[in-house]
Specification:
Layout (H helix, E strand, L loop, with lengths): L1 H29 L3 E8 L10 E4 L5 E3 L5 E6 L5 E6 L6 E5 L7 E4 L18 E3 L7 E4 L1 H4 L7 H4 L7 E6 L4 E5 L8 E5 L2 E2 L18 E8 L13 E7 L8 E7 L5 E10 L4 E12 L15 E15 L3 E17 L5 H4 L7 E18 L7 E17 L2 E20 L1 E21 L2 E13 L1
Length: 454
Amino acid sequence: MYSIKKYSSVLKYKLRIILIVLMLLGFDKTNAQTTIKGTVKDNANETLPGVSVTIVGITSGTATDIYGKFELNTTQSFPLTLLFSFVGFTTDSLLLHNYDGNEININLKKSVTLKAVDIKSKREATTISTINPINTTTIGQEELLKAACCNLSESFETNPTVDASFTDAVTGAKQIQILGLDGVYSQIQTELIPFIRGLSSNYGLAFIPGPFIESIQINKGVGSVVTGHESISGQVNIELKKPHEAEKFLINGYFNSEQRMELNTQIAGKLNKHVYTELLSHGSMLQNKVDHNKDGFLDSPLYEQINLYNRWQFIYNPVFEAQAGIRFVYDDKQGGQNQFSYANDYGTQNFYGIGIKNKMIDAFAKTGFLFKEKPWKSIGVIQSVRYHEQESYFGLKTFDGIQKSYYANAISQGIIGDTRHTFKNGVAFVYNDYSETFNQSEQNTIETTPRSFY
């Protein structure tokens, strides 16, 4: 009797163990995890990163990596439906009755084919930068077009940013004033190269025709030492037209009731994929004596001017860029009393007359070296040379001068940490040789100014 009871309890124990094992096997089968792998591509068979992959009815899922591949772990029983969604593509689904472990390949179709869109906006003729820590005002071509004709000095007449005033009514010489100070306290440059300096200080503002100008940047107050140390009240930088951006052909003329005449031409073109060039020319004259206020003196001096400018641009992206140009200016002014004649009255006290003849030729070269792996790093070298002759007389007094100048500036740019913090450093050198004669009294002056900056 005891044996039967003992056998019965052992049997019950074994049945319980078998039941527990069967329950565990059933539980494991119910909660088995499956890893589904695959790749998502577009119609051009290019892989798509960032595609959302989910199972219908379940909010969580995964996304494809940079190679378009995904792995989705699930404990759901089959059949199940995979859902693929991506911005710009039609959402697609895939029904799986079972999964054999092989990768799934699916191609998504683009939902919308976008057409090209041109976005246009209007910009003020004069703008002020709110990003640059230096107070900078930019005068664009729209502002320059407000005057039918003009040279650089006349370009400021329609803009209140800079005051342009006559320094001498007889010669018609003009100067600009920034923050109430005369032009000698301002630094005037063409594309970061000193322009108004030496013999051109009095009449140089008339040596740049308006049609040559692309824009003018005006900095009020002390400017950057990168471009020079001479700025006290401000800096004026004139950007001339660039060969790769200028109109292929342009011609304009001007004539007014006082018989002032101007003619400007522009030819620009692309010689090959690396070389661009342009030729700008300007001719103007006024030979009609005008005296509206009847004071016996000409309201404006008679003059003739010829201005030629040839420029070349070399672009070898992304490692090298260069520019070079040459300019020739001939300017002849004659003013004074209406009755003055050079042939009959020069060197006499009959009538007062003045004459100023300028002949200037200058050339420049800019080279820039870029670093393909470090686009924020660059090295640039700017050089320019100038030869300027001036012959002038003021009544019985004469002044003749010759200026020979050389300018060089080497600039290196880098970053501190990231591109939000940049720095520039370099060295510069200025050489000026003046030979001047005033009433037979000669004087020679040589100026050399080396400097470094950071």
